[in-house]
Inverse folding.
């Protein structure tokens, strides 16, 4: 890796903030200038991508988890020449499916009618491995992020996720080193979807599957995620 530090932009998922990337930010700060983007202000994926791009340096490495992965893919559509390397983590390239949209609308309705405080805990079983759901520190981190993001941003983010485009055809145009990584027990974005993305990207992609891990891999298996991102950054 060059002596001069590269910029690494980390994109959080739904109801997540910089606490999602706490271990990675600390671990990688020796090797990169780490920025965690705020994805709480816009209500659609293209505007989220533009928000990131207007605040980013000319060239940067880019990693996104879940919703952040959707934004990362949109950045690759809007400004692929600016991305030195790409990491797609616990995410997928499909548009939202009808059953998924229906569940989102139900949660949005619940949040709008005064029950937002329970949304984070309701989502928890789908977000983490069952063993992680018993870990008080992990649970506190997940619920703390949800509380800080808040109801209004949650509604904006869900709207953005529901209306994302199908990006599978765009993956073949990704021509930078790409890490595709997920938890082996990710219920929201299963391993098969990451295998599909890696195959579509082709020779530029490396697939990493983290065992005993759910959807929020940077929190559940922080050392392994940080190590994989370190190895990925060496390819810049």
């Amino acid at each position: 890796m060059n002596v001069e530090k590269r910029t690494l932009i980390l994109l959080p998922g739904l109801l997540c903030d910089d606490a999602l990337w706490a271990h990675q930010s600390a671990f990688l700060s020796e090797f990169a200038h780490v920025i965690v983007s705020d994805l709480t202000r816009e209500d659609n994926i293209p505007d989220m991508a533009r928000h990131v791009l207007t605040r980013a340096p000319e060239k940067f490495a880019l990693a996104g988890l879940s919703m952040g992965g959707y934004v990362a893919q949109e950045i690759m559509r809007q400004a692929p020449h600016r991305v030195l390397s790409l990491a797609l983590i616990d995410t997928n390239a499909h548009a939202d499916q009808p059953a998924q949209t229906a569940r989102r609308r139900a949660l949005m309705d619940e949040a709008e009618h005064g029950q937002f405080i329970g949304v984070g805990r309701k989502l928890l079983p789908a977000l983490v491995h069952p063993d992680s759901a018993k870990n008080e520190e992990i649970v506190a981190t997940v619920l703390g992020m949800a509380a800080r993001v808040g109801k209004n941003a949650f509604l904006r983010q869900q709207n953005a996720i529901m209306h994302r485009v199908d990006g599978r055809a765009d993956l073949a145009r990704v021509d930078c080193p790409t890490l595709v990584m997920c938890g082996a027990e990710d219920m929201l974005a299963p391993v098969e979807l990451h295998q599909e993305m890696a195959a579509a990207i082709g020779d530029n992609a490396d697939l990493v599957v983290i065992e005993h891990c759910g959807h929020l891999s940077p929190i559940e298996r922080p050392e392994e995620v940080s190590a994989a991102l370190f190895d990925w950054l060496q390819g810049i």
